[in-house]
Amino acid sequence: MTRLTAEFWVHAYLARLRFQDIPAYVVAHGDDTAGAVLVKLNTLDGQAVAFQRSFDLMSGERKWVELSSGPEGDVDQTIQRQLGFDPDLWVIEVEDRQGRHLLGEEGLE
C-alpha cells in the first residue's frame, strides 16, 4: 500500500480542520517525505492532549493514540522531548474549546 508523504497528509489535515472552522497551526515543520506527525489539541482552558500515530502489529492498522494529556505546559514538555529525539517530527497544534481534532475521521487514520 502506498503511503502519503508527511507534508501531503499535514496539508490535507489542515484543510479538513479549516473546513470545520477549527484553528490549527504547524508548530514544527518536520521532514516533508517521511516525518512523523504529532497533534496537540489545546482546549484553551490550560489543558491539552498530544496524539501520535501508532501501528498495531496484530491488525496492521495505523491509529492515533494519546501520548500525553494534562496541563498544557506538561504536554508541551513531552512534545519538546519528542522533538529532541526526532528532529524530522511535525507538530500540529489544534485549538478547539469543544475538543475536536477530527483524527478519528475516515482518511485521517
Describe the protein's architecture and organization.
With 109 residues, the chain is α+β, with helices and mostly antiparallel strands. Helices cover 26% and strands 33% of the residues. The protein contains two helices and five strands, in the order αββββαβ. The protein has helices spanning 6-19, 72-85; strands at 24-28, 37-42, 47-55, 62-71, 90-95. The longest helix has 14 residues, at 6-19. The protein is globular. The two termini are 14 Å apart. The mean pLDDT is 92.
Question: Mind sketching the topology for me?
Answer:
Elements: H1 6-19, E1 24-28, E2 37-42, E3 47-55, E4 62-71, H2 72-85, E5 90-95
Parallel strand pairs: 2-5
Antiparallel strand pairs: 1-5, 2-3, 3-4
Provide a compact summary of the structure:
This protein has 109 residues and is an alpha+beta fold. It is built from two helices and five strands, in the order H-E-E-E-E-H-E.
Tags for this entry?
five-stranded mixed beta sheet, 5 strands, globular, alpha+beta, 2 helices, 33% strand
